Amino acid sequence: MIDVSGRRRPRFGRLAGVLAAGVLAVGAVGLSASAGAAATSTASASHAADAAASGGIAASGGIAAQPRSAVPWSKVGPGWVLAEYGTASAGKSAPVTLYLISPGGVRYTMRTWSGKGMIPYLIAWSGDKTRALLGTTGSGYEQLTLATGRLTTGKLAGKAQPMGYTTPDGLDLYGITEANAGGAAAMVARYSQAGRLLKVLTRGVGENTAVYGPNGATLAVSSSKGIELVSNGGGVIRSLPVPGTGTAIGCQPIRWWNATTVLAQCIAKGADASRLWLVPANGKKPTALTPQRGNTGEDLGDIGAWRLPSGLYTQGLTGCGSMGIFKQAANGSVTLVNVPNTQANNEVVSALGARLLVHAQTGCLNSSSLLWFNPSTHAEQWLLRAPDKAEGVVGVVAFNSTENALPF
What we know:
mainly beta; Methylamine Dehydrogenase, Chain H; 29 strands
């Protein structure tokens, strides 16, 4: 998705070279089935009424956002979402609000920025559900204590870019320092919440993407030949090579498929399209999850996958910077999944039971909305529905689970 406000997105700089090859690392969270039944989409008249009732946002039944004091904190967990929503149209500034959204679609206002000047972008949500991490510029970041609204600022040492919280509770931060023209390798390191360097975890030319494992003891880190399993205490535990990987780009971890397996996207030697692999952390042979795609057809490379009761769904590149949702058959062929009331650019954020959380382009100028969608029944539950030409949803992170979320 394109950020019409021009705000800097996390991970963009270090993925620029990969994007040029037609690849985008997209993270997602697999969540347990706990949400209520999905609602069907509203008609145009209902959409307009909802928008009027909720400050320009058509959301769950048109109910206005609730205050922070109304959040049932003991119930917050899998199925809950943090989302940044902007009301500006292209080339204009307007307020941006961070919402906490329940599985049932109830919105709670966490913070609103005026829209003037730098607006922090959403990076991560701590596993103890208390804090949101937001990026500013370079190594700068802010932490918002969700229950109180207290905002603190910091900067990671050594010009590292903040990437998220350590798991399972988010006691520390972790960040990436890019490789540079002077020959210094990329570095993955752990930092205190105040930004102090605690431990260099690994260094390497291709080690510029990292995803923490569920228990926080290990990380999956990108490499030129596959994935590196790295200790939270520092150092590579073992290399996890993926067959046929080209060293020019290599592999990037997308998320942990489960507690013992990493979902990775790799570029094979001589190929342009990315392919998905399941890489066991214990060093056993990786398994290809998707076949090698080419430069023809609807799916031009796979960058994410979710297994639902109704089948295996993949995130594929569809050309011109767009993404689509596909259902993959047992033979590896794919069928494009149409998400009603959206345009062609749909990005999966996470999965919940039988449903996908979709960040969808719903208007011209990349106006974006957020909905739960059941690809089997086509039932929709809209969480944030932007009016046409409003930028809408500009950041979203689902609550931590055994499969870690990365912001899009």
